[in-house]
Amino acid sequence: MGRLRVSGIREVKGVVRVPGDKSVSHRALILSSLAEGVSTISGLSGGEDVAATRRALVRMGADITVDGALVRVEGGVREPDDVLDCGNAGTGIRLLAGMCAGIDGVSVLTGDRYLRRRPMDRIAVPLRRMGAHVDGRENGRVAPLVVRGGGLRGITYASPVASAQVKSSLLLAGLSAQGSTTVIEPHPTRRHTEEMLTAFGVRVEVREERVTVHPGPLTATDVAVPGDPSQAAFWVVAGLLGGEVEVPGLYLGHGRAGFLDVLSRMGADLDVDPATGTVRARASRLRGADLEASHVPGVVDEIPILAVAAAAAEGSTIISGAAELRVKESDRIASTVAMLRAFGVAAEERPDGMVIHGRPAFTPAEVDSRGDHRIAMAAAVAAIARAEGDTAIAGWEAVATSYPGFAEDLVGVAGAGACAPADG
Ligand SMILES: O=C(O)C1=C[C@@H](OP(=O)(O)O)[C@@H](O)[C@H](O)C1
Ligand SMILES: C=C(OP(=O)(O)O)C(=O)O
Fold first, then answer.
1. Residue ranges of domains in the chain
2. pTM higher than 0.90, yes or no?
3. Distance (Å, rounded) from C-alpha 147 to C-alpha 5?
4. Which atom from ligand 1 is nearest to the alpha carbon of 26?
């Protein structure tokens, strides 16, 4: 489907079960492929990004079968027999490149036209320091990447970017290195790799923004993937803007619940039950709240939808220290500002963020996702909750990378006719 028509304004009410966490899903497939024995994974994300990682691991020799809702993985990986196509997934290519650096032989990793623009030097530089040969277009800066792996040594690396993908890439390479590998981050990022490595029997030490992995074998285990908080954020904001929404079963651990803190600062009426990972959101009068560099890793994927909340809030919001957004699926500073402006919202780009001036109502819009799933979904929420009339979202197919059932879920909470494929 190319374009989605969304008709607002509608109340958004009900319970939404979001897909399995995308970050956890990539890691569950990778670690179980590295492990000895058979692992099972329940609740795996059904998005294209995770499917691309699954196919890449099969190319490397992992035996992965899907049996209803359960995925069975028999570990064992070697040099892949063909190019690994990581699709649209930054997480997939960077984590797999780290894994390939630890494997004897040559791996070639590529992706779609959006992924082939994203910076890979952030992993190529430290992986080379560990002893891998990493090359790619533009002097190894962008994919396709060629990794000749094996014979690594552990290093201590202070990453210039706060990135869980960089950290995870090096930790995965470190699993087969001589000696331990330590990554130091400018700000702490999500800890899924550390948590899951521990579950697979690997020794990992975590101290604030410093993580050390000790090489060793992985033991197969069973992983239950929790709901994805980054997907829940769309429904939570939809509920806050007009309705009442409950999202159960979420991962609300380290580095992933930051959007709830930001929304609370904005005056959101939220109930959070950490025991069940359930978040309830009720219609609220929001006010603008600024975001700075130290907040960004905790909300990095939620900024487009937080920007929609800010656009509907009283007063202005300044987001700074968020230059990383420029190297996501799209330049998310430019694409978020363009999306808000299409709805008649006053917003300006800054080199490392944006300024958003809230307004009570939006005008219906023609939005282009720019190939970015999060821009498309954020626009759908803006349209349903605040724009009287029909909004058209071009490039809706991007949503399949992380949330193929989003449009169905929108109908589920906003009623029949809330959205439909549009011509053109
Ligand atoms: O490690 C991960 O699973 C992710 C880390 C983040 O990227 P960076 O680490 O590049 O910030 C995030 O944007 C991405 O969606 C998922
Ligand atoms: C940035 C994202 O993912 P990735 O980096 O894996 O492409 C995202 O899902 O918003």
1. 3-18+226-422, 22-224
2. yes
3. 43
4. 3
Q: Are 253 and 260 in contact (CB under 8 A)?
A: no
CATH class of 22-224: alpha beta
Domain 3-18+226-422: CATH superfamily, name plus number: Enolpyruvate transferase domain (3.65.10.10)
Q: Does position 47 have pLDDT exceeding 60, yes or no?
A: yes
Tell me, using a 6 A CB cutoff, whether residue 328 lines ligand 2. yes
- What residues pair up with 4 in beta bridges, in sequence order? 393, 421
Instruction: Check pocket membership of 228 for ligand 2, CB cut-off 6 A.
Output: no
pLDDT tens-digit series, residues 232-254: 999 999 999 999 999 999 999 99
Give CA torsion, residues 256, 341, 391, 403, to 10 deg. Answer: -20
pLDDT of 371 > 60? The answer is yes
- The pLDDT assigned to 68 comes to 86
CA-closest residue to ligand 2 atom 8: 301
Binding-site positions for 3-phosphoshikimate: 22-23, 27, 163, 165, 301, 328
Closest CA to 254 of 219, 297, 293: 297
Quote the tokens at residue 116.
């082939």
Q: Is the CB of 53 under 6 A from ligand 1?
A: no
